[in-house]
Amino acid sequence: MCGIVGYVGSKQALEVVVDGLRRLEYRGYDSAGVAVLDGTGPGAALQVERKAGKLANLEKVLVERELRGTLGIGHTRWATHGPPTDANAHPHLDCAGAVAVVHNGTIENYEELVAGLEARGHERRSDTDTEVVSHLLEERYATGPTAGDLAASLRSVCRDLQGSFVLVVAHRDEPDLVVAARRNLPLVIGLGDGENFVGSDVTAFIAHTREARAVEQDQVVEVRRDGVVVTDLDGLVVEGSSYHVDWDTDAAEKGGYDFFMLKEIDEQPGAVRDTLGGRLTPEGLLHLDELSMSDEDVRGIEQVFIVACGSAYHSGLVGKYAIERWCRLPVQVEMASEFRYRDPVLGRTTLVIAVSQSGETADTLEAVRHARAQKAWVLAVTNTVGSTISRESDAALYTRGGPEVAVASTKAVMTQITAMYLVGLYLAQLRGTRDPDEVRAHLRDLQEIPELIAELLTRMDAVRELAHELKDEQRVLFLGRHVGYPLALEGALKLKELAYVSAEGFPAGEIKHGPIALVEQGTPVVVIAPRHALQAKLLNNVQEVRARGARTIVLATDGDESAAAYAEHVVRLPDTKSLLTPLLTLVPLQVLSAEIARARGLDVDQPRNLAKSVTVE
Ligand code: F6R
């Protein structure tokens, strides 16, 4: 949550920083702000502009007021402390206007720090927790052992802070220096030629450099035009290695689409192909070296937990069906926010799979830490190379979905589900619970999926029309059985978050235990009913809601007339094995919610109150 960027180089910093913020806006859009230093020498003024609302509001102001200079920092906010107003927008300054600070995270002991600062005569101008950092830096830079040393001042301040933070700081007397610090939240350095960057993720600077280095826990970075120095909080230099980001700017652009989400939906065939790519042996079996568990340890696994939040949790639910079926292992899927507080029984023979697109979700990260403390083996399934969750887990399986900018997750979920199948088949292969021919056959089916998704995407006009018909509905129900159930949850979540429609997903067999009371004349009920062994039972449930006036929209396999008989609308799906159907049913559910949101005139990429990377508990 909150996007942060810092730049020092020879280009106009404002352009670089605002461009970075544009790419980071998915992390929060309650306000945006920048500080630019002209870089001509000590004593230059810090020029600051900040505005409540989306980045576009700030950009309007910046048309009138061009901030010139080659050093800059910027922020796009997801509000935690204090409402989204201009005064609470970052950067936050000290009393003298000499130091500017942008912050992602929460400073848990800020009230105590504020009390001390006020007693020492500082004047607080916002409701944020962040502002304390500016005033503390003002003091440490002015006097004492860290006087005149911005990095040392920041290290000293960090030692006094509790909570999670990424801080990026500029000082008017330091025309060649941006300093940044990290605890618990992501910070990446971009290494350029005569210019360097910091950002919440690589999209912040991908237009300028693809060489990146991750900043580790409790480290401080000094970013200058000619180089970068990383230290720990004691000031000891920490060596580290950089990595090359292998996707380019196009991947982080809209490419002619009205919304990133629509582009990301269309990218799914390629995304699934990338998830599968290079993971098959010439014999048609799997090698997932990433799991980095010995064969003996894999055979010793006695139980699996999958922990995740939101849509990633739904991917985990699909994973449960696959792993239980293929591996005969008990699998529990838990919302990460509940998992660690429940004190689950874990141990050396427990595999915990943490599913997270961003690899930064606070609840999932804490679940990972809890699981590791209990000696479980933790595998991260994530889209983000070098993310905190991937680094803190025993092993990481990257989903390779490419950058996902829209707040609502689409191709990331698709690739997470694909990765769940890969994990299930790999465990089955190593544990010998499925014979190699069967594993090969499932992998062949999986390899056909990208083509099937591509074909399905060509049929979406009918779903767009349906979205127009449903655009004024206030309540929509989603029903599914077996692997259709997590998809019912996912369909409902997407509709809620994008179109602000009250939507709920249920296992179809459960509705007569209460939820059917919601059905009245004309209530739209979306039924996820690809060909499946439980089809007949599902169709009974469809009849039950229809008899009570529901308007049924049925997702059915090509050629399956049994489901169509009970539907007001049929959305056709290509045929595949029933366990793999989530990879297809996902597509019309995504399109339906995006198009209903669009028809309601909403911002499909940036739904209200949300942020993509949820780094607070
Ligand atoms: C919904 C959505 C969220 C995320 C959830 C977990 O469309 O995107 O529900 O799935 O916040 O995020 P990650 O996967 O980054 O841990």
Walkthrough of the structure:
By secondary structure, the protein is α/β, with parallel strands linked by helices. The chain has three domains: 243 residues, Glutamine Phosphoribosylpyrophosphate, subunit 1, domain 1, CATH 3.60.20; 198 residues, Rossmann fold (3-Layer(aba) Sandwich), CATH 3.40.50; 139 residues, Rossmann fold (3-Layer(aba) Sandwich), CATH 3.40.50.10490. It has 19 helices and 24 strands. An eight-stranded antiparallel β-sheet has the order 3-2-4-1-10-9-11-14, with helices on one face. It has a six-stranded antiparallel β-sheet with strand order 5-6-7-8-12-13. It has a five-stranded parallel β-sheet with strand order 16-15-17-18-19, sandwiched between helices. Helix 7 packs parallel to helix 13 and helix 15 crosses helix 19. The longest helix has 22 residues. The protein is globular, with a radius of gyration of 25 Å. The site of fructose -6-phosphate has 15 residues, from helix 9 and helix 16. The site of fructose -6-phosphate (F6R) has 15 residues, from helix 9 and helix 16.
Features:
617 residues, alpha/beta, Glutamine Phosphoribosylpyrophosphate, subunit 1, domain 1, Rossmann fold, 8-stranded antiparallel β-sheet, 6-stranded antiparallel β-sheet, 35% helix, binds fructose -6-phosphate
